[in-house]
Amino acid sequence: MPVADKVTTPAPAARAGRNARAAEARRRRLIAAAFLLPALVLLGALVVHPIGYSIYRSFFDRPGTGFVGGDNYREILSDPTIRTALQNTALWVVLAPTTATALGLIFAVLTERIRWGTAFKLLVFMPMAISMLAAGIIFRLVYDHDPDRGVANAVWVGVHDTFAESSAFPKARPGRDSPLTDAGGGAFVTRDPVRAGTPVLLPLVGVAPEALPEGTRTAKTAATEPGKVTGTAWQDFTRGGGGATNTVDPAEQAFAGMRIEAVKDGRVVDTATARADGTFTLSAKADGARLRLPAANFREAYAGVQWLGPALVTPSVIAAYVWMWAGFAMVLIGAGLASVPRELLEAARVDGASEWQVFRRITVPLLAPVLAVVLVTLVINVMKVFDLVFVIAPGAVQDDANVLALQLYRTSFGTDADPGLGSAIAVLLLVLVVPVMLVNIRRLRKEGSR
């Protein structure tokens, strides 16, 4: 039989099959395009068009009528407020993602070892359910300078006063014609030496009655004791008026707990503490000495730390951000930790590795892809942070806490709005975010190709 007779499929039939397959492929592409079209329209309207318009607008002046070229971008580099925003944004990128990721890693590893780990994870993750605005209001109160309102300063002042308690008489001072005079450094001293057998009067004014120590009683004149120096330290003020100056009147309050020192030739020869009625007694060593009320009696109450002052406002806001996002990092890292082969960890422990060595040489390297995801996600998120800074930082220090996203808002929509400069800041922010996004996309493709 000739070879040609063995061909059973006619050429027209083959071409028809290929045409049918091509038509089916075109139909599938059209169906896919039809489904993708709404998303592409939204992407173009909500992303591509705003980006394009921002780039275009950044080359025009404030009204948008005059082309200024790169002047807006040059102003970004010359404006001190925007430079501060750039520096603070760099500080945010370095500190916030690394701190949140490190805490998330620690929490994820430690919660595997405790029975109530699930409850702990719930508590740590709970701030993620709070909006940035609500978190900002919470931390604005936490950082309040008044220890009676701000939790941070209440704790700080409590710890400080445990080791260096403030005085109950911070505003006390000698009155008119007082036998006391300023000794320098916040202390007061009697004008004349004191003598045994003659009661000494140490009148002061300036302390609110409600601020006096608990247990304070009405002052009384000290009794005479042979060979000893006695006296009274009290508030020489009668509520409602009346009373005689430099005289212990019946309604006047004592300075209980006031410390008194007897000083001779620059040396302290004896000390005493005023009783609840203000009286005190010194030994015969005090005869001929001058009595000094040391500055410790009048130490101002410790007011705490200015968390929202110019020096600490940025770290304080970063701490609020970490409080919110450490739970996010913990959950993702915990999910990655669940996939770590347990036999590797157990084999390392059997071989004598300590827990720190297991964590550093096995756990962390195996979690490196997850840690990279968390870190890059937080870096992108941090570059856009706005509401926390806007709400927490008081108006007086917003320039010190400024970041690019906040500066973008203030420049574009503030009282002296400049849309051209604001568009330039938006483009700069996009340029800074794009490399991080590209790194993330490249990493995701590499992970998908494995």
UniProtKB/TrEMBL annotation:
GO terms for cellular component: plasma membrane. Coiled coil: none annotated. The chain crosses the membrane at residues 30-56, 90-110, 122-143, 318-341, 362-383, 421-441. InterPro entries: MetI-like, MetI-like_sf, UgpAE/MalFG_permease. GO terms for biological process: transmembrane transport. It is found in: Cell membrane. Pfam families: BPD_transp_1. Belongs to the binding-protein-dependent transport system permease family. This is ABC transporter permease. It comes from Streptomyces subrutilus.
